[in-house]
Amino acid sequence: MRTTKAKPRPTRRKRLPMRYLLPLLLLVALVAMLMLRGYVHSEIQADHRVRDPAPTDKVPDKIIDGGPVIDARNAAKPVSLRIPDHKIVITFDDGPDPTWTPKVLDELKKYHAHAVFFVTGTNASRYPDLIKRMVAEGHEVGLHTFNHPDLSYQSKSRIDRELSENQLALAGAAGVHSSLFRPPYSSFADAMDNDTWPVVQYVGSKGYIVALDSTDSEDWQRPGVKKIIHNATPEDDKGAIVLMHDFGGDRSQTVAALDKFLPDMQESGYSFVNLTTALGAPSALTPVTGMDLWKGEAFVGAVQVAEHTTDFLVVGLAIVGVLVFARFGLMLILSFVHARKVRKKDFQWGPPVTEPVSVLVPAYNERECIANTVRSLMASDHPIEVIVIDDGSSDGTADIVEALGHPNVRVVRQENAGKPAALNNGIAHARYELVVMMDGDTVFEPSTVRELVQPFGNLRVGAVAGNAKVGNRDSLIGAWQHIEYVMGFNLDRRMYDLLGIMPTIPGAVGAFRRQALERVGGMSEDTLAEDTDITMAIHRDGWKVVYSENARAWTEAPESVQQLWSQRYRWSYGTMQAIWKHRGAIKDRGPSGRFGRFGLPLVAAFMVLAPLLAPLIDIFLLYGIVFGKTEQTIVAWLVVLMIQGICAAYAFRLDKEKLTHLLSLPLQQVLYRQLMYVVLLQSWITAVTGGRLRWQKLRRTGVVEAPGNPAERKAAG
Amino acid sequence: MDSRISNGPGGQPRPGHPVDQQQPRDATMQLGVFAEELTTPTRRLTKPEPQLTKPEPQAVRSDPRLTKPDPRVAGAVPQASVPTQQFTKPAPQAVRPDPEPLSRSMTEKIPTFKPLRAASAEQAVFVDASGKRGKKLRWLGWLFGLAATGFAVALVGSLLGGSARAPGLNLPDKADAVTAPPQATASQAPQPKASPSKKAVVPAHSASKAPSPKASKSVPHSATPVTGHSPVNTKVSPRPGTSHKPAARAAIPSAGKTGA
């Protein structure tokens, strides 16, 4: 369908194409944040392999028989240290956890005990406040790598990265670096084997004191408070490093165990101290200044930003998910109800309408199609008069029509003024009360006009939408639009008909009561989508707008991507204009208020909000496939595709269309849908920035009956 | 060919009739239900009153120059250019006798259709001809771009060139596996009464004696009692009460009473 064109504007001076750069930048930023979030949630790069025990011949005996603290900084002489008697070093691994660590800290504070927290970089960057609190309350913090992989599987560079990023997180969280390290999946010193010993050696070479443990409370298995305490208690009065966890699930037993373990041990003569205190050394925490501090704070800051922003993204995804599924559900249910209602044997809109109808055909340079269009109209089985409004064509469209010589066809010429003006011109020339509007390249069936005007038997009906069909549906792009028309537009129309909120009557096939048109002031040029505008205005005036499924009209969909882009740009921009123009209806009373409070938000949600948020689906889809759980993501996508396929098949059945074109549905979801929301985004940007589109006309001085008007010519002789 | 309709759509002849007539027609009775609408078009039907936000156009015009549509001229355009001139004289079409439609429709006469003034592009929805909104948003766009770039720089910069090395830590000098003597633990127990408790930030410190009122001997090995204190912590943690007990017991180098 070609609109009647207005003259093009002069081009603007070149500026930085922000409308493309900014969305791209936003997309990249969002993806980066998603990836950072995935990294600190251990979804990306997480390595969950754990070694089986191995032989121990390479490990020095004095290490295996030694204490839980290993000082391997001197590679030639690794030293093993024990905890003195009457001292317990409680250690908590894998933290901090927002739920349990505060409780653990509270317990420690209550009993004036100190402990060592071996924290992961992921959690430290996510909950920096807890690290601050640990340090402030006198506890010690040690490293436990960034992402908790089994270091015996990792390369040296990966180990370096795990250590440096862990330090980075500590620096950002509390402004300190630590000299203590505990390898993930480690245990007692006598469990050291040929796989784990090289790790300790390497880490020692980096200057770390490695702390294993003496007793393992096994609290992560949740064996019960008594068992935890029993496991944790050292023999006699010996000193010990106790392994506990403050992360990784329900740690309520750990907290409850602490509440008994701490006072009991203290009464037995033990004190709970930091590791370096027990060893008689200065604190393992060193304050960080300068560049290291800034880098740490930058990293933790970035993680916090990423976490909070992606939370919004997840909310957005939930919204669009709800909208999509609600739309599916409504479409299916309401289409079923609508079809049943209008196909009942005794269904009638009202008394049959037999009065003649005026058919308006605004045309601009439609020399190829206009003859077909007019001929199809003349084959109509309903009495009509045809008014072709030639909007200043330069290719002789008007002459072609006149040459057809049909008695009921009139030609009105005007200077090029745009489609709304042409339609208004046509309405003024129309003789009858019922007015059908179509496009210059639309082809009607013989029954179309009759089917289209039958609903006017119901006095409340002010306008009727017909069933526009894509004629050129065999090309790929045509097939996609065919699917879109059948499912998206026509299934939607049934739903909107029942709900009484039809937003658009297609310009290719629509009928109006002249009275309704007059009352709302005719077609307006305020928006690029004058069909949507007039339909909304008619709603607000209190009329019913219905869908006549048998009023088929065949239209030619754009065949090239450029034309499609252009068409959809106008449609989406115009729809947003119309919604905005009629936004005042929210405050109105009566039918206008109903439309404003119920119809407008629904239409805005389905036609503007959902498509704008649709890119989130693709972002999360890609993220899930690449970084997340691949199989589950693909399965979810396939399920949605299947639901869409079912909807589409139902729509096709209702319209009695062949199902073969549905084969291009999967590809449509991958290519066509993305094109549509890029177009919508661009039109949204134009709307927000207030730019003028090239289809919008400059101020006009008034439309003239063009010279060359037949009557004038006749008068001239 | 002009649209001189001599025959109706069904082939019936049309009575010649000037279009602008005022009297209601009876011929429309055949249309049945529409009959009740056969008043002047301004009379509402049994529909609810409209609540339009824009002014209703006067729908009915008894205008001699009926079929001349001038929707755009309805909004007074100041320029008296050639186009407007043409409207002051009767339109050519009005000169021709316009054939009567076959059966009268509800509107027994064709009013001049006067739609609201067609808005020009300057008045179109969203269009901001002054460009102010665009400029403001462009400025915001730069801001956002800067923020995003800053985020990227912060993130990438922080991850680059990190050192995996631990800060230095001086453990007390021990030849091999060592159990620190009990007295050392006494001197190291955090005691608020301990006189110069060095709370300073001392990452590495050679051994120095910690004066301890409770301990009978001071041990050469004892390190600085920067015990339990992190560099950023400035408070001494334990209470006087609890710390004495273990210290008292430890001073007696016997097994001591075990509590519960």
TrEMBL record, chain A:
An annotated Gene Ontology molecular function: transferase activity
UniProt keyword annotation of Transmembrane present: yes
Domain NodB homology: 86-273
Pfam families: Glyco_tranf_2_3, Polysacc_deac_1
Origin: domain of life: Bacteria
Keyword field: Glycosyltransferase, Membrane, Transferase, Transmembrane, Transmembrane helix
InterPro entries xref list: Glyco_hydro/deAcase_b/a-brl, NODB_dom, Nucleotide-diphossugar_trans
PROSITE patterns listed in its UniProt record: NODB
Classification via CDD domains: CESA_like
The protein, known as: Bi-functional transferase/deacetylase
Taxonomic source organism: Streptomyces violascens
Automatic annotation (TrEMBL), chain B:
Compositional bias of kind Polar residues: 224-236
Start-end of Basic and acidic residues biased regions: 62-71
Protein name: Uncharacterized protein
Key words of the record: Membrane, Transmembrane, Transmembrane helix
Keyword Transmembrane helix part of the UniProt annotation: yes
Transmembrane segments: 139-160
Chain positions covered by the region annotation Disordered: 1-106, 173-260
Biased composition regions of type Low complexity, renumbered to the chain: 177-223
